[in-house]
Structure prediction request, 878 residues.
Amino acid sequence: MGASVPAYLPNLSTAPCGWSMMASLCLKLPASGAATLWKDRRSNMTEPVLTLSGISKSFPGVRALHDVSLELYAGEVTALIGENGAGKSTLVKILTGIYQPDAGEIRRNGQAIQLPTAHSASEHGITAIHQETVLFDELSVAENIYLGHAPRNRFGMIDWKKMRHEAQLTLDSMAAGIDAGAPLKELGIAKKHLVAVARALSVDAQVVIMDEPTAALSQKEIEDLYVLIELLKEDRKAILFISHKFDEIYRIADRYTVFRDGEMVGKGLIKETPQSDIVRMMVGRSVDQIFPKRETAIGETVLEVSGLSHPTEFHDVSFAVRKGEILGFYGLVGAGRSEVMQAIFGMTRPSSGAMVLDGKTIAPRSPADAVEVGIVYVPEERGKQGVITGEPIFKNVSLPSLGKTSRSGFLRMAEEFSLSRTYTERLDLRASSLSQNVSTLSGGNQQKVVIAKWLATLPKVIILDEPTKGIDIGSKAAVHEFMGELVAQGLSVIMVSSELPEVLGMSDRVVVMREGLVVDTLVNDGLAPETLVRLAAGIVEEQAA
Amino acid sequence: MTDLASTGRRLPDRLDNPLKSAVMSWESLLVLVALGIFIANSFASPYFLNAWSLSDLTFNFAEKGLIALAMALVIITGEIDLSVASIIALASTLMGLALQYGADTPTLVAVGVGVGILCGAFNGWLVTGLKLPSIVVTIGTMSLFRGVAFIILGDQSFKGYPKDFAWFGQGYVWWVISFELVLFLVAAVVFYILLHRTNFGRRVYAIGNNPTAAQFSGVRVDRIKFVLFCLTGLMSGIAAVLLTARLGSTRPSIAQGFELDVITMVVLGGVSILGGAGSIIGVVLAALIIGLVTLGLGLLNVPGIVMSIFTGTLLIVVIALPILWRMMRERRA
Prediction:
């Protein structure tokens, strides 16, 4: 979709939501229209700013990269595409001076350069914006922007006044709406990304690497980020954009490079390449991105939540989920969806409200209580909350089911292995053995371990919080297909998701939340994406005003 | 390898040979170190290879070793208890106080063990109930418990413990096998089973590796941590009984500095100070090594301060060796 329109032009067809927001933001940009952009692009098409050639990197037992090449051009966005484990992160670490390549050459404007340290990478004008932003929570926004290159006064001391002033100028030029003096910890993830972009602008970086910058952002925030990327392009930065999401890639990238299993398998211009070709290069096979169709009989109400409130996070949340139903929860980041789910799971205590499961009132005071009654939660932050990193697969899977696998409190390893095997094989887990450490698995396979862990407890309600965030397309399809199987077996699924196609493709009904309130509950019967986005962002009111 | 083309793809339980990983483990290294020190000792002193000398060895580590067993579990969960030596002081003082009121031996033991558990429960409540960091809590109670002991005792001391009470610290079960050694070995087996063979132990590791994810997996993290602080309290109470019985008197400065020796044993035993890893066998071996070093240097009339220099150096060397080895291997690769 949208491949026929040049990616750098605002594309109405792929931006059904939020175009009005984007336009309003565009007005705040310096006036240098698309015409100049066009001209600049033509004149500089040929010479890459940064060239990587023949790069190889191995770790004990793993060949991460083999003879890969990559070119980045000024004023263009190059998308780096590949499944998890394809070598994208390794390449980013080489570019930012964290890893040293075993072989190969990096050229900057035609001259060979070495990047032995992170500092040398930034000296060569290479900066990175990471998925989980690497900034300092305890410092102010201005300090974060100017860390390592703060303006000095004539005594060689940091010129705080100037630093704050210039930081504010940069932020204002981006229409970020952030106070440079505020402590960073007070900002949300989207605003932190803006700070990282401001930092990239302030160091005068020529090469900006964006490693899945949209993974934690809501649709509206993503739109804002696109505007910023346009700003960076206009500023003649060469941008390396890493993403799993094809709509994003087709929206903003000019070029692409595809990695598979540590090798470069294709590159070219986005507008000349159909999406299906790139998917084929990426997975080495063709994958249908179609969501599994399923025929399920939706039964009785299983879990009913009424008037659930929390002092700060949400208020008067009511909904019901039925047997065999997938109930989607859509909303912007910060709408309070995860907080509601964590209250149901017993992580936080609601201040009022009631929960009824199978006709019985429940009030879980801890996750252990929730698991006992049959409610389980697959958290959004896989690494922090989902898997026990440092422990093998089978110990992760059996942890909540130890009561079943053990005999009077004593472990029975054989039972644990067989339990883990049953559930991980159902999810088609890719691993070398059940004793493999989960931290060595890709994001998608870690997610499968978390889901397997919960299925083994035979739950009644499974809550999935952003179940496919940051996982590769193959695992994504596996998770979606599995959700279909779960409801077919009579489970109730609550799915919190910020990805519109996922919400629309999987849910039977959709609850939309905004600022801690349930705005509406809609039956997904040909639901239009615009409807959800409007409800979630409260756009109707804004336009009327 | 399994045939990937076949439909039933079966994940093996494990790939590593368990025997090979056992040989390459930290515990094997500790066995070698222990043997090395044993051999060095037998050359250095003619008095070393003697049943009674070796029996004396057990008194050097049994009391601290008992606490180290419980401390290992606390450290594996990512917490720490620095108040153990002060618990001994308070428990011993209150035993002495009970003695003044004419308590018999069973009552004395009950007082010592009971005070230990109560002190541990107090630590556990502060850490899990009030969500305070354990290092701060136990630095506080370290001063608090010993402070109470000082108030009760001043510069006095309690003496005159009954003969049958002294047996706990000085008695032999059979020939040169002391009661302390037997108790330590029994406790080691109990703790081995608890940590490595039960659901409880599995959850302890899970908490240490990732407390948030453990909580999210339905592990009752606070309950387990509370139990562990009670356990270190209990073991400190038992150590207080043994130490008081062995010394035959209580001073407020009793067991001063024990907590560092206990933590040294735990860390030397291969327990990660960051939590999540370690084994009881390692801690037992480390306790034995420290006992061997102390006895060997004692037989050579080396003063105590030099001994602590030696133990400190040993700790750093043993911990640095594998890291240096890995660094050298990486440089060559």
In short: Chain A touches chain B through 44 residues (CB under 8 Å). Residues 1-44, 541-545 of chain A have pLDDT under 50 and may be disordered.
